[in-house]
């Protein structure tokens, strides 16, 4: 008669004190008392016969686990001591939970808590707790019908686009790089308390939650203070814009403005000096709003379908106008520059908007047309400093749907002939999704998992003079896996960048997986890691933004750069990137860029990577959606998993 294996093991445990184990191919010998002093553990169940198992050719009990992690577990069972500095706490905790060694699990949890300070690292700069949920907005007027301003309904007609060979002079200072985003359905929002978007202007930030927006301002003496909370809306916020420095106009010098958009609708408030807000109006673009921002006092809304909406603070007038389909935009002083689907770059001088109210014409003028008429999918305007000798000149870098990167320039001596094609790079094989031209670098990002190419820009007397055919400075990827289940994240709140002033070194922000408490800050010029930040309270990071706040009133004080991270619990955490950059400048920045293979696998270990979904091959950028609970399941496209395994995949080889 054959005796069951479980009974053989139980009999061996009763009759012998020495237990032989084969863990993952490595032999261990220990006593029964050592293995069973923790009640209700894996080993007590194993040796009592409650768990059936296999034996190897020598009769040792086979356990299919990592032998290197079993060694410290067995040492703890023998000595009740732990040496955490020589081990990976997270991996060992996972194994201790499998074996059911409760005292070891508690010690490892304590080690993890001691390692994570609720006051953060030296870069941690501040914490804003979740705000109080506001009262519901009273429905003052419909958001779906015609828009009435000044007592009359607005009716817009398509206006022909003018073509011009000249660039308007004196554009002022360049604005930030913008990128149009795909519109997520409101039904995807799962957690109304998480931070969806953070945006900044001067010493103010606006924080958008699912149904309301909160504004904060900072003063050197009092720190960050909450100054405005909007009413709770009936729909989900997908875009937010902030203007903290209104110059003149009927609003007054001290008034600020904040606007939010959802779907086709936009609500605009003015924030008074006492912190109270007044609703200016509700406007409709009639198509989904995919970009919302201010140019001076003007609120601008655009859609890839070819709609541009403008609200002017002087006239208090809202106007929609049809243009050709829009793929990208940038701002330069009072000018809005549009990259369009037909291969043309157009500009609108929004300061002239009030002068043309009679015929509802935004003076949309063609500035340049791509030689191959590829869609302009990314756009960056760089304005050089004014000089007494030659005035100022303009440089525009743009990317196309075919992956081509071009630079066009217009100098004072060539004003009559319009911008001239200066240089062409054909190194991307996927559509260009982002581009940035700065004083020292040209940076492009394509749709192949955020593959970045950078070039060093040479200048003569401030004018670009990069030699044709120059070799790229570096090539790397900002991997950012997207959550295809849609747990309520917002693409506008997780843009990778690059962030920063165009005369300074800029940075990318990398969040590898949606449900993580860690961000990597990397130089945009070479991809090297400046620092990493980790949530001080362990909550998932659902949005982020880099913004420079003005310095103090002391002489010589300069603006400081901060990373603002929004979290699943509704809090805002602030990190001092100026200090991080200074520390990185004093020592050799490690060649390390994004997550190492070990860090990447540790992040991916939190997620279920499903291979059943079809990769998204659209030209749009890879956007990240946040999942709030840590226990939730994340599913990613198969192509992204393959990249994680290879680490250097894709049509454009990254180094």
TrEMBL record:
Protein name listed in UniProt: BTB/POZ domain-containing protein KCTD3
Gene name per UniProt: SHKBP1
GO cellular component, one term: plasma membrane
Stated family: Belongs to the KCTD3 family.
Function: Accessory subunit of potassium/sodium hyperpolarization-activated cyclic nucleotide-gated channel 3 (HCN3) up-regulating its cell-surface expression and current density without affecting its voltage dependence and kinetics.
Sorted UniProt keywords: Cell membrane, Membrane, Phosphoprotein, Repeat, WD repeat
Annotated SMART domains: BTB (SM00225), WD40 (SM00320)
Known partners and oligomeric status: Interacts with HCN3.
Protein's GO biological process: protein homooligomerization
Localisation per UniProt entry: Cell membrane
Alphabetical list of InterPro entries matching this protein: BTB/POZ_dom, SHKBP1/KCTD3, SHKBP1_KCTD3_BTB_POZ, SKP1/BTB/POZ_sf, T1-type_BTB, WD40/YVTN_repeat-like_dom_sf, WD40_repeat_dom_sf, WD40_rpt
Location of the BTB domain: 17-86
Superkingdom of this protein's organism: Eukaryota
PROSITE patterns linked: BTB (PS50097)
């Amino acid at each position: 008669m054959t005796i069951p294996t479980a009974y053989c093991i139980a009999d061996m445990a009763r009759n012998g004190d020495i237990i032989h184990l084969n863990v993952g191919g490595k032999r261990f010998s220990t006593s029964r008392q050592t293995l069973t002093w923790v009640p209700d553990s894996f080993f007590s169940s194993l040796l009592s016969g409650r768990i059936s198992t296999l034996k190897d050719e020598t009769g040792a009990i086979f356990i299919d686990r990592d032998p290197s992690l079993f060694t410290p577990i067995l040492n703890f069972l023998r000595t009740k001591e732990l040496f955490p500095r020589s081990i990976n706490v997270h991996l060992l905790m996972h194994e201790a939970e499998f074996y059911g060694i409760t005292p070891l699990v508690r010690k490892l949890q304590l080690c993890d808590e001691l390692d994570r300070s609720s006051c953060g690292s030296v870069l941690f700069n501040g914490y804003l707790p979740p705000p109080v949920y506001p009262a519901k907005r009273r429905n003052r007027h419909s958001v779906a019908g015609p828009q009435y301003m000044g007592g009359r309904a607005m009716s817009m007609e398509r206006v022909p686009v003018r073509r011009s060979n000249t660039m308007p002079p004196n554009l002022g200072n360049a604005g930030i790089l913008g990128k149009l985003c795909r519109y997520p359905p409101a039904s995807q929002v799962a957690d109304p308390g998480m931070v969806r978007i953070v945006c900044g202007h001067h010493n103010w930030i606006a924080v958008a939650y699912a149904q309301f927006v909160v504004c904060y301002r900072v003063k050197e003496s009092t720190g960050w203070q909450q100054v405005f909370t909007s009413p709770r809306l009936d729909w989900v916020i997908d875009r937010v814009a902030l203007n903290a420095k209104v110059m003149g106009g009927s609003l007054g010098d001290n008034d600020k403005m904040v606007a939010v958009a959802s779907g086709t609708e936009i609500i605009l408030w003015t924030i008074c000096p006492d912190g109270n807000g007044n609703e200016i109006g509700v406007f409709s673009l009639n198509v989904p709003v995919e970009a919302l921002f201010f140019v001076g006092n003007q609120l601008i809304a655009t859609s890839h379908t070819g709609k541009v909406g403008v609200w002017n603070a002087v006239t208090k007038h809202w106007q929609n106008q049809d243009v050709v389909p829009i793929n990208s935009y940038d701002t330069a002083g009072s000018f809005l520059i549009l990259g369009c689907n037909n291969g043309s770059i157009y500009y609108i001088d929004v300061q002239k908007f009030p002068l043309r109210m009679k015929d509802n014409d935004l003076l949309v003028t063609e500035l340049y047309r791509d030689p191959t008429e590829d869609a302009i999918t990314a756009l960056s305007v760089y304005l050089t400093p004014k000089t007494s000798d030659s005035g100022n000149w303009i440089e525009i870098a743009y990317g196309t749907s075919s992956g081509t990167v071009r630079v066009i320039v217009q100098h004072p001596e060539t004003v009559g002939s319009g911008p001239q094609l200066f240089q062409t790079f054909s190194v991307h094989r996927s559509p260009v999704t982002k581009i940035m031209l700065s004083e020292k670098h040209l940076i492009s990002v394509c749709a192949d998992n955020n593959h970045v190419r950078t070039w060093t820009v040479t200048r003569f007397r401030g004018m670009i003079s990069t030699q044709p055919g120059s070799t790229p400075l570096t090539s790397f990827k900002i991997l950012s896996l997207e959550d295809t289940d849609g747990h309520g994240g917002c693409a506008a709140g997780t843009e990778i960048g690059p962030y920063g002033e165009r005369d300074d070194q800029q940075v990318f922000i990398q969040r590898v997986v949606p449900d993580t408490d860690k961000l990597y800050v990397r130089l945009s010029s070479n991809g090297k890691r400046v620092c990493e930040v980790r949530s001080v309270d362990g909550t998932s990071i659902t949005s982020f933004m880099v913004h420079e706040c003005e310095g103090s009133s002391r002489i010589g004080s300069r603006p400081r750069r901060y990373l603002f991270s929004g979290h699943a619990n509704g809090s805002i955490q602030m990190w001092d990137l100026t200090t991080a950059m200074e520390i990185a400048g004093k020592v050799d920045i490690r060649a390390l860029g994004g997550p190492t293979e070990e860090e990447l696998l540790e992040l991916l270990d939190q997620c279920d990577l499903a291979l059943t979904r079809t990769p998204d091959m659209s030209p749009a950028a890879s956007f990240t959606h946040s999942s709030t609970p840590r226990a939730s399941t994340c599913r990613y496209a198969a192509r992204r998993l393959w990249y994680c395994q290879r680490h250097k995949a894709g049509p454009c080889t990254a180094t």
